[in-house]
Amino acid sequence: MRQNKLLLTTLRESPGDAEAMSHQLMLRAGFIRQLAAGVYTYLPLGRRVLRKVEQIVREEMDLAHAQEILMPTLQPTELWKESGRYDVYGPELMRLYDRHDREFALGPTHEEVITTLVHNEINSYRKLPITLYQIQTKFRDERRPRYGLLRGREFLMKDAYSFDVDWNGLDQSYWSMFKAYQRIFARCGINFRAVEADAGAIGGEGETHEFMALADIGEDTIAACTSCDYAANLEKAEVGIRSEKNEENIKLDQIAKLYTPNIRTIDELVESLQILPSEIMKTVMFIVDNQVVAVVVRGDHEINEIKVLNYLGAKNITIANSEALEGISSIAVGFIGPYGLDLPVLVDHSVVQMNSGIAGANEFDYHYQNLNPQRDINLEHVGDFRNVTEQDSCPRCSEGIINLHSGIEIGHVFKLGTKYSDKLGAKFLDSSGIAQTMIMGCYGIGVSRVLSAIVEQNHDENGIHWPLSLAPFHVHLLPISVKDDLQIQVANELYERLISHGIEVLMDDRDERAGVKFKDSDLIGIPYRIIIGKDAGEGNIEFVNRRSQAKEMMHIQDVVEHVSVLLKNSH
Amino acid sequence: MRQNKLLLTTLRESPGDAEAMSHQLMLRAGFIRQLAAGVYTYLPLGRRVLRKVEQIVREEMDLAHAQEILMPTLQPTELWKESGRYDVYGPELMRLYDRHDREFALGPTHEEVITTLVHNEINSYRKLPITLYQIQTKFRDERRPRYGLLRGREFLMKDAYSFDVDWNGLDQSYWSMFKAYQRIFARCGINFRAVEADAGAIGGEGETHEFMALADIGEDTIAACTSCDYAANLEKAEVGIRSEKNEENIKLDQIAKLYTPNIRTIDELVESLQILPSEIMKTVMFIVDNQVVAVVVRGDHEINEIKVLNYLGAKNITIANSEALEGISSIAVGFIGPYGLDLPVLVDHSVVQMNSGIAGANEFDYHYQNLNPQRDINLEHVGDFRNVTEQDSCPRCSEGIINLHSGIEIGHVFKLGTKYSDKLGAKFLDSSGIAQTMIMGCYGIGVSRVLSAIVEQNHDENGIHWPLSLAPFHVHLLPISVKDDLQIQVANELYERLISHGIEVLMDDRDERAGVKFKDSDLIGIPYRIIIGKDAGEGNIEFVNRRSQAKEMMHIQDVVEHVSVLLKNSH
């Protein structure tokens, strides 16, 4: 491709509202343009990268024996009512009426459509297991679209769905997809972790993993062990428990009541009493499935609501506001504590490990000190109710500790079980002729989001470093002066030779100053740059590695072989 | 691919509402399934064919130096208001509101978005000409979706747009796309004609051609010369004129008034007077841009409203109803004729050529006979105002006559000129630094519609004949009995060998009777079939050509070479 005629406008400054580096760089380097909030056009460079991701995904899906189909964007909302998601999904589901006033949703995901399809097409165990996938544009009306392709309202996804005769079958389908995802992200050159996630939060009954690209801009938090390969998202990550017992032979002080007028928050307590947050027992009241419940964690910890839900086998949880607590006599809002509370009290392990702590006295303007869990708190409900923190022990191995990372969710595999097949009637006849419900899994990759993840992980202050597997072109060919006939002749010959060897080349044949060309080339981030300058006559060119900035002089006869070897080694 | 696990259910009967043969066959052979009216899922076989069409389109677009981009489906309707199409497009434009009550359209076409994009990205003649394309799902809320993929509401299109500095440039861009379209449809194996179409009907100022696949189900009529390569759609097709003069030395009879009570239509006249329709002068009243106009054609001809519009340089035309004609004293509805009509009268050439004719007398219950055009009709406005008919002379060559064909529109190229660039401000600075408006062309291919066209043209009573270039697989491998270990072993070995040579194979490894396998194979329509039966032990197989039904026995060692040659020869 010759740059002179390529639809490619680079920008020196990034638009003011682009916060994420990947968003800024893809705008500046001419990969994408915004049409509306969260809605983007892919310019030629962006479209090329997107197609490379699509191709890798397609190859790995085919290798995993998934079958490609293409389902419609327009989905009759009757299906969403049948599955029960019509109301649950909320305003993220974009809806419209056709000319006959029939309501359609723009597919944000295709569980309803695929389950109905398979229900109609497959009725025997002989046709199972089967995994179907598509690469398709999805729509989700995000409340706050941002970060460019990271959180868009129209985006490209690969979604796959597996159908099995039983849970063992699902297990195989699941891990087959899991491994395909590992290969896909590895081939894309992404630094990622597969992390355990919580199924309950999505309403499933089975296992689930998220594939996270590590990046500071990421909106998800990952807890990963420094020693073993344990990794989970913050919702799911278990806390490694050292010992339930506090140290023995410690003399216990008597409980004492402190006058703490208007001191309600952890911060106020810390400041007023000159103590550490870890010396406080923090008690928060929740409404869990219409029941009021107290949860106690250490003052420096965060309560994990998903863990509370899972412990209680409940579905809904909200923090109890003052009105909800009005009828309960033992409660003084702002001064709640576990001592003497006439309610279910869920106590986190780390609280049990405290020798003594400070907590609300359930009386306005008073706190207790010297509370000892074993002596003073009802320990009927002890469990893991908090988020892990940096330096927590690993729940799996004995050596490691937990580090927290930010991550971008780029993939998700999920054991759905019978959630949709039950509601939409996807049954099959087993070998005895008995009708059984299909066991489903679903698997998603944010194809367009992968671009953002790659750029977040691969850039410097001057621009992008595309991995070779996804780069819009392999080589950026820069004749320094297009007014120099010799340079142009040499560049044209090399251009044709590289292309005839299957190497993708962008040639900057613009009549621009060398500085402009170098700046644009850094910004665009093609992995290898070949500079044709004054030594063109002697057949000498400069070969530059965009990422390492390593430069070497090379004879023009050796260039094609050199690039071919680099390409071959990257596979 | 092994058929046992492929998502492929064939149907013995076609659903009752499938009228078109392509629709029936693609449903029965398991290529597509309907989700809602005009909204289809592509099953694995259908998706494979669709991807092959996409690939051919992409290769030819790239060869023509068009650059691939991807624009959003969601288009802010502000853009449609700017271009003036928001109201014009009508209910075919699907509209919705996002959570912030901002209105969006689901793109049925992308002139507004691309013109705005190019307006923002390109401001100099140096970056022109440029042609951009995308392959993307489009939405059009058809009043009456039908014929499967032929007239859907959600469908795949390739749309391209060219931007030039002047009309000469557009001419080059246009013919470059035209030639690419010829190559694309030829590679797809379609029997097509590129026909002249009328630009005025779409509001453009330039040339336009439609690419028509010849097929009886087609909703368009094409007039093509039997001798030269003239072809045009019915709206546009010119009538070849022999001579304006009627025969000389014919004795002219006097005009006579006939009492024809309640005889109003051509059919009634023909029956009552025992004459031919071609002896009648048919006069129809129109409102053209608020003016009442009479158009006279021969009784066996159809008036072409587009030609009337173009002759008058007008924009809107409707047939005048009785109310619209009430004020005009000289008119008696049902008995209108050209003689003595005090209005503009447009007379078709074929009327002028009549020696004598019968027409309404502009008086209730009366007609005239012996009307002679030269003597009795105001011939101020003589022109081509009718549709061509079979047997008309060719307007281009002296030998040919016109034949009419039905066609499916599969592509369209169109010189837009400045229609959108004017309204959306797409200007560039020319080499003198003066702002000029870009000259645009637009070019569309109905990618999913190509599938219907192919099947309409390539089938017999038993199923589809896919052309090799688009077939879901090249070879259908049929071991007759999967219970015969030897057959299965031979089939498996051949399967692997074919695949290792890049040949796409579907193996019917189902435990079904031979008759079922043959029936399904005929229905699906893979070009070559290899049958492995009782002679497998001796290494003999049967090789069948689906289209010709030609069968030959072949040694298994020769099969791979044979298929490879067939594949190579097809390119």
From TrEMBL, chains A, B:
Show the CDD domains listed in the entry: ProRS-INS, ProRS_anticodon_short, ProRS_core_prok
- Enzyme class, first EC level, given as a word: ligase
Instruction: Cite the EC number.
Output: 6.1.1.15
Entry's HAMAP family? Pro_tRNA_synth_type1
**Domain comment text?**
Consists of three domains: the N-terminal catalytic domain, the editing domain and the C-terminal anticodon-binding domain.
Q: Which NCBIfam families match?
A: PRK09194.1, proS_fam_II
Query: What family, per the record?
Result: Belongs to the class-II aminoacyl-tRNA synthetase family. ProS type 1 subfamily.
Q: Tell me which PANTHER family the record gives.
A: MITOCHONDRIAL RIBOSOME PROTEIN L39/PROLYL-TRNA LIGASE FAMILY MEMBER, PROLINE--TRNA LIGASE
Identify this protein by name. Proline--tRNA ligase
Organism (species): Paenibacillus pini JCM 16418
Instruction: Cite the source lineage.
Output: Bacteria, Bacillati, Bacillota, Bacilli, Bacillales
